[in-house]
Design goal:
extended, 6-stranded mixed sheet, alpha+beta, 25 strands, Elongation Factor Tu (Ef-tu), domain 3
């Protein structure tokens, strides 16, 4: 029987190639290793010592050498081993503690000198002729000692910060403990002394998150886009010159304008009689208490779990990198300039702000996973928001333009009856919208407002818009041009008639 011990978590020299694929939560490690085959009384086997963050159920191993086959795999915990990286980190912590304690001792000696000179200056009997000389010595010595004490205090704080940082790294490296996995793999080997293996397994305490930056330049018609990956490496093993890849499995200042509500005018539903409601409730309780034929089967069918398949998957190849254990690092993934069409949008019934909108169309489809994005306007940060992009086209908002404002005023709102003997009721709304620009050039703005919709054929609406508005998705839309350092006005009115006895819900026009 043969024994191979390959400490994979310390990046064994026997490793021919290593690859790490980081997922949002976890990492997939794979490696090709060449190792000596030995023998003991139980037969041939190889032993791998893995990081305590390895997931046993995900371990795979394949022989790459003809005549060597895998029989079985057994896992066991051990706390007798630590990674060389963790051991070196522990040594550095001990050395820093020794330095810190030496500096503390030095500071205590200096503080003792300060006490001595303070007491000498206040208590010692001094001849009048020696007063000036002694006072000069006290001031000179105290000045030097106070300066040295302050410097030593700063040095102690610096050393303590280094110790705390290394302790944090050591904790991340060991995953909160110093346990490792001993993986015993039984093999069948026909006289082979060495063999090549390919192994793979998932690691906990690893992952990555996307970080984005979008900087809009409306006058140039472009967006500067930056995509970075923040990789968390707490596996307990150093990744030295590994092939690194990133994989994604998809799972408060206002930047964009609020959504408009629908304006529906319809009859108000009559409340149900109390007796009927009570009877209905009693019938419901009776029905609930009575067993139904096949009810058990139906309930079991509804409660059965349902699998939902999602096939979206993207991979970014990052090349060969060295990522030490316990570190969190940020890496550049992509940096591009997107040609974009910019426009301005106003929804004055909801906000006086005029928002900047950008529509981007890429030559090739992209898949950027959900993450946080810093939003900039011409180099100035305007906020932070969630960002994702799948496909070729994307519409984005870059906050409000401080040079543009919009105001909506109610010019008239009244109700009444048509004629002395009329059987109809009427409502009238008149609104005015004014846009104001401080820009030096004319600006095209899309103005949107809810358009009323009749929810009953007996409710008649007469609508006048000035200038003429398009109606799209139950909204008025005006595409207007606001002059440089000027104003532009929009007006619209709604006249409604309905039967006199109809109870009406006026929606957002109430």
């Amino acid at each position: 029987m043969t024994l191979i011990v390959v400490a994979l978590f310390c990046a064994s020299a026997l490793a021919a190639s290593e690859r790490v694929v980081f997922y949002p939560s976890g990492a997939d490690f794979s490696s090709k290793v060449k190792a000596d085959i030995k023998k003991d009384v139980n037969g041939n086997y190889v032993m791998f010592t893995l990081s305590g963050q390895a997931v046993p159920d995900t371990f795979t191993i394949a022989s790459l050498t003809k005549g060597v086959a895998i029989n079985d795999v057994a896992w066991a915990r051990s706390d007798l081993s630590r990674s060389p990286a963790a051991f070196e980190l522990g040594k550095k912590i001990d050395q820093l503690k020794f330095k810190r304690d030496a500096v503390i001792s030095r500071k205590q000696a200096v503080d003792g000198g300060i006490t001595f000179w303070n007491e000498r200056g206040s208590r010692q009997q001094i001849k009048p002729s020696d007063l000036g000389n002694i006072a000069g010595q006290v001031v000179s010595n105290l000045s030097k000692l106070y300066t040295e004490s302050a410097k030593l205090k700063v040095k102690i704080n610096e050393l303590q910060e280094l110790i705390n940082d290394l302790k944090r790294q050591l904790k991340e490296m060991s995953g909160g403990g110093k346990l490792v996995w001993n993986v015993k793999v039984s093999v069948a080997a026909k006289g082979a002394k060495r063999a090549d293996f390919k192994i793979g397994y998932m690691l906990r305490n690893c992952g990555w998150i996307p970080k984005y930056k979008l900087d809009a330049y409306p006058s140039a018609g472009k967006i500067k886009f930056t995509f970075e990956a923040e990789i968390r490496q707490g596996s307990g093993m150093d990744f030295k010159n590994c092939d690194i890849a990133l994989a994604t499995v998809k799972k408060r200042s206002r930047i964009s304008p609020p959504n408009l509500g629908r304006w529906v005018i319809e009859p108000r539903p009559e409340p149900e009689p109390e007796r009927y409601v009570m009877e209905e409730a009693v019938m419901s309780m009776d029905a609930a208490s009575m067993p139904r034929v096949g009810a058990g089967r139906n309930m079991a069918k509804r409660a059965a779990p349902r699998r939902v398949s999602k096939a979206t998957y993207s991979l970014w190849e990052m090349g060969r990198k060295t990522i030490p254990a316990g570190s969190t690092r940020k890496y550049a993934v992509e940096s591009e300039t997107w040609k974009s069409n910019f426009s301005f949008i106003a929804r004055p019934s909801l906000t006086p702000d005029v928002f900047v909108s950008a529509k981007t169309k890429l030559a090739a489809a992209k898949d950027y996973p959900a993450g946080s994005a810093l939003m900039f306007m011409e180099g100035t940060m305007i906020g932070k928001r969630k960002f994702s992009f799948s496909g070729k086209e994307k519409k984005m908002f870059f906050g409000s333009d401080p040079m543009l404002k919009v105001e909506r005023k109610i010019l008239e709102k009244k109700s009444g009856e048509q004629g002395m003997f009329s059987s109809k009721q009427t409502y009238s709304w008149k609104y005015g919208i004014e846009l104001e620009s401080s820009r030096t050039r004319p600006v095209k703005v899309l103005v949107q407002e809810p358009a009323p919709v009749s929810g009953d054929k007996r409710i008649k609406l007469e609508i006048i818009t000035e200038p003429k508005a398009e109606t799209k998705d139950d909204n008025f839309e005006w595409k207007v041009e606001v002059p440089a350092a000027g104003k532009y006005s929009v007006k619209y009115s709604v006249e409604m008639t309905a039967p006199d006895d109809m109870k009406i819900d006026l929606g957002i026009g109430r």
